[in-house]
Design goal:
Number of strands of chain A: 11
Number of helices of chain A: 0
Radius of gyration of chain B: 13 Å
Structural class of chain B: mainly beta
Number of helices of chain B: 0
Strand content of chain A: over 45%
Structural class of chain A: mainly beta
Helix content of chain A: under 10%
Oligomer: heterodimer
Radius of gyration of chain A: 14 Å
Order of helices and strands of chain B: EEEEEEEEEE
Helix content of chain B: under 10%
Distance between the termini of chain B: 40 Å
Order of helices and strands of chain A: EEEEEEEEEEE
Strand order of the largest sheet of chain B: 1-3-8-7-6
Largest interface: A-B, 20 and 21 residues
Shape of chain B: globular
Largest sheet of chain A: 7 strands, mixed
Distance between the termini of chain A: 32 Å
């Protein structure tokens, strides 16, 4: 089983619909992230969380919200999806305990298409 | 601001050697990562450098010069499965990875 699991893996929806992407991890990491990736662009950070009570905006948070329900779960919501939110979304985890480098471990990705 | 510069695309021949360069500017520095990403898949970790010099791991090596804001990834004995994008990602003072668009490597027989 994957250490970082994203659901759904693929989703097609219509403009204006509410969408939730879920991420769960079994690595025991405190830090969790949501990124989006568009063709020809680098990974862009949407939101990140360093523990259950901590939520931080990334560079492109507008139109998105997140919830850190538990150490292992971090969900991303699009309250009213629009076509330019069509992208590949990745959840990632990391930790910075002694000896850790801060390496990111990624989920398999969720491909979202907004029509 | 923070910036990553890598070639957009490179082509190499199976069995050959290729070097992918990366220059970066970050607010602070806490190491640099290289990731491999096949099309439509998640990035996977290749290497991490925090001190100047060369780190070797099998067919892949990564070099860092902190004073020059420069790193490279060296791939030897290229295989067709090495066709992928290679992402250079330095870590800034807040321990956040800064991502460029990556280098798409095409391997030809």
């Amino acid at each position: 089983d994957a250490d970082v699991t994203q659901t759904p893996r693929n989703r097609i929806t219509k403009t204006g619909k509410r969408i939730m992407l879920e991420c769960s991890q079994t690595k025991g990491h405190d830090r969790m992230y949501w990124y989006r990736q568009d063709p020809g662009l680098g990974l862009r950070l949407i939101y990140y969380s360093f523990d259950v009570k901590d939520i931080n905006k990334g560079e492109i948070s507008d139109g998105y919200s997140v919830s850190r329900q538990a150490q292992a779960k971090f969900s991303l919501s699009l309250e009213s999806a629009i076509p330019n939110q069509t992208a590949l979304y990745f959840c990632a985890t990391s930790d910075l305990r002694q000896g850790d480098t801060g390496e990111l471990f990624f989920g398999e990705g969720s491909r979202l298409t907004v029509l | 601001g923070q910036n990553i510069d890598q070639p957009t695309e490179m082509t190499a021949t199976e069995g050959a050697i290729v070097q992918i360069n990366c220059t970066y500017q970050t607010s602070g520095f806490n190491g640099l990562f290289w990731y491999q990403q096949h099309a439509g898949e998640a990035p996977t970790f290749l290497s991490y450098n925090v001190l100047d010099g060369l780190e070797e791991k099998g067919r892949f090596s990564s070099f860092l010069s902190r004073s020059k804001g420069y790193s490279y990834l060296l791939l030897k004995e290229l295989q067709m499965k090495d066709s992928a994008s290679y992402l250079c990602a330095p870590m800034d003072s807040n321990y956040q990875l800064i991502w460029g668009a990556g280098t798409k490597l095409i391997i030809k027989p």
